[in-house]
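Researcher: Here's a chain I'd like modeled. Treat it as a single chain, no partners, no ligands.
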Amino acid sequence: MSKFVFSVLIVAALADHIDRDARILDQRSDVNPDGSYQYNYQTSNGIAVQENGVGGHLSQGVAQWYSPEGTPITLQWRADENGYQPSGDHLPTPPPVPSHVLRALEWIRTHPPKDEPIRRFF
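Model: Modeled as a single isolated chain. Structure tokens:
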């Protein structure tokens, strides 16, 4: 959690389009004895982040900010035993798999290799 917060703050500090005089408008943080936590903050330049989870097991949250062009960006994430899973309209998506590759994969699936005897040449 602290690595993410630190990285968000570093990115915010280094970005040229972000107001250097931004102020924190709201900031809250709760950490419970059972390891669960939640925090959020909002700044005067439109950055807002909230996250909750259980330390070392689960983290989920959302971050919002504005691109240099003024477009609102929303990033949602979940991190658990299945890894880090970000989502947002601004994230790149892979191109579709070409049809010839899908056909080849289907052919391989329906024609499994046959066991062949090992030939020794000595």
